[in-house]
User: Fold these one by one.
Assistant:
Number 1:
Amino acid sequence: MKTSKDCVNQNYLDFVAEISPKTNEKRSLLRAFWVGGFICSIGQGLRYFFQEVVGLTGDELASYVSIVLIFLGSLLTGLGVYDRIGKYAGGGSIVPITGFANSVVSPAMEFKTEGYIYGTAAKMFTVAGPIIVFGVSASVLVGLIYFVIYRIF
Amino acid sequence: MDILLMFLKVFAVGGAICTVAQLLINYTKLTSGKILVIFLLSGAVLQAFGLYQYIVDFGGSGATVPISGFGYLLSKGAMEGAKESLFKAITGGITAAGGGIASAIVFGYIFAVLFKSKSKKN
């Protein structure tokens, strides 16, 4: 019994090793680089558009670029396109702000069966929650430290 | 020509930041959520020391579109608010990042309700 079980396990492990996608490290880096760079270039294109055509400046300009990219990221996730980009590009699709939008929509769609409140609305924050918690906490901490520094010096 | 050079810089800086993330994926067991938090905090901390501004000045959207740019925006807003009052020191970060947070929540909810998950079809 024991030997046959071991044999099955070994065969199974060989099989898994055989069919597992071999991560070609150099290729994955190249893919992350060009897709990430491309998404950022779209952001820069939007920036020129809002600057030259619409005439926005400063913080408003930066915010509009983020809003449009988040819109596109959410839409493409809804259509199922972003997950395909993610499989190809890895880090190149996760780190841009579109990846943040993807991390909001993806679990929210997945858990829609649990309802629109405890499913969709709650699961939106499985990944985005930590980002908002740490981001907002860091910004409040930085603000307080700088407030003290400005008052002393 | 200037615009072309700018796009080249954006592509290089944005690509480089994403390549660092891919290195973390390849050589560590960090999940994508943890990588996002690490990048966000890196951007926030670098800007707290005034350093991320240099990357933004050089790389434009290549530095602001990645999630580290979101951290940069939060820190920058807080630092500008701190010059004015205690209240604005606390709210400045969220005010600066408000557009992004609001749109992620609103668009995120709308599209999650409108579309069905395709993960099972593949």
Number 2:
Amino acid sequence: MDITSPAFKSNVKRAIGDKQLQRAMGNVKVGFVKKRAAARENLPEFDQLRDQARDIKNHTLEHLDLYYEIYEKKVEATGGSVHWAATAKDARDIILEICQAHGARTVTKGKSMIAEEIALNEHLEAAGITPVETDLGEYIIQLRNEPPSHIIGPAIHLNRDQVEASFRAAHTHLPDDRSLEEVSELVDEARQVLRQKYIDADVGITGANYLVAETGTSIIVTNEGNGDLTQSLPKVHIVCTSLEKLVPTLEDVSTILRVLARSATGQEFSTYTTLSTGARRKGDPDGPEEYHVVILDNGRSDMLGTEFQDMLRCIRCGACMNHCPVYHSVGGHAYGWVYPGPMGAVLTPSLIGIDQAGHLPNASTFCGRCEAVCPMRIPLPKMMRHWREREFERHLTPRTVRTSLSLWAFLARRPALYHLAASTFIRALKLLAFGRSRLKSAPFAGGWTKYRDLPMPSGRSFQESWRAGGDE
Amino acid sequence: MPETVPKVGLFVTCLVDVFRPGVGWAAVKLLRDAGCEVDVPRGQTCCGQPAYNTGDRADTRAIAEKTIKAFEPFDYVVAPSGSCAGMLKKHYPELFEDGSALKASAEALSAKTHELISFLVDIMGVEGVDAAFDGTVTYHDSCSGLRELGIKEQPRKLLATVSGLTLEEMEESEVCCGFGGTFCVKYPDISNTMVSSKVGHAGETSAGLLLAGDLGCLMNMAGKLKREGSPVEVRHVAEVLAGALDDPAIGENG
């Protein structure tokens, strides 16, 4: 997909002006937040589980090479193959090659953010292969030719009417006068249409929530069961995933699963948790004849050993964006690439460069709500600040910001001069205010007075009155 | 509660110093009433967050060194702001190399730094205040105070002892008001969406006065309420607790 992160500010304006989007975001900020809070309330050991989950991932990241050696051997021993993709292009080429080797004409796809990251659909289409998204949200946005706006609710920016319109436009083989008033009718229709696609597909592509070193298993969690049909009906199953999804044991997975759904949707467990280990064995009633795991790096290994390593603990639950007031204000598309919200503000600069994604880690008040709810205890605000440091070091911070900052810092390092400047500033403001208690516009604070009045100082500086030895 | 008279250095904060010195005086009164000896070292300026959050670590460190030195003689450092207290307490130690003398000094400062209201309740054991306010108020939980320092019950506990005061909670009192330091001028459109939602929730209550513990958030919310022509007034919680209501509310005419 096209990267529009550099145009973040104009994306924001459009998003804020979009009434329908604003209504949809209003639902996000109430629904997800309440559900997670209730789920947490009902599990007294939730916070201890978060610590354990964090420790499991930290341990794995410290020994990633070791666990991948074990994992790869296990996958091969169960009749599968592991493919290493250093870049998005490598991953696309590997997947296309497998599809072409089987003469694939259509592939079904379970939900995969890695497939979004490598722009897999466009690549397959260009090669004459039709990808069919089978997750309902993904299916809807595929019909609309839109990118996802949320990592677990890709169509969360849309309302029922928009989905109905898309279905009527796409499913022209169905009678025009059919009722699509109810959400359940929309779901039924998608299910009917997709049923045949599962049967027709030559290859099924899914993501993976986890890869398990001890067994060579890949795991997906879904609520629709679409992933199961996607991966078990076609002859070939390709798992499209990334480096940081590995955990050592099934026991470890069960710990992390206990915090995943609770953090994401407030469910105790997702409806389906599906484990895939290798290809169909002799005597198995079903399953793919071939099982391929494509593991994408795309900049992740460069994060190991840096201040951004903690980000690789992310399990893509979406809690950070569900609780983010900036995300609630602008929705996911404004972020301009695959990953929105706080996790996107940290991950996106790692993957596409801080020069392109600079706005993302800057557009945060550091309110800390994301870190407070992250099941993996990722210090998201701290890492956004680290990106700002990288920006500052590389002189990517806007010149006006740098200039005013260095002038201010010059004063802040010199208390005597600073106090004099503070008193002078107050006098200047008072002259400007001309007796008013607040300003409706101020040339030096246009960003502020565009939307708010600027309260004026109520007296001389505190330091000045303290030195004078008296109240006010 | 400390056994001897604690020497408290007041970290005024740059916004209180310039825009609302009355908050500083309210803090002084509350600290003295709690039995503290208060001084205001002249070697302080700003906590350094504008530089820190712009990624300028060198200037942040230089400012932090000044602050650390200015507050060396005190038993406690108290700020009428969760954000600035959080900066001294949680972030200063991260600015310096492990094992360095500066790191040790930053950690010493961190250990004795507190936000005003939590200091009164948690350290000084203050159970109530001698103040009166006739009316209903609502309280916004500023982000750093709430999530970095765990300030939630302390202001409510003291507000409950203000004679005549009723506290009515608003929806989403723990959600950011959209101030965020330089964020509000760098991303004014997003900030406006956030503060609109915040003052909307405040307006849904029957409160005539909106309180919080951080002047940045207060100026943001007051500026928005006044722009919208709302009658809801805005004050720092310390003003109400100290009974210091002579100054007009933030942005109001005298």
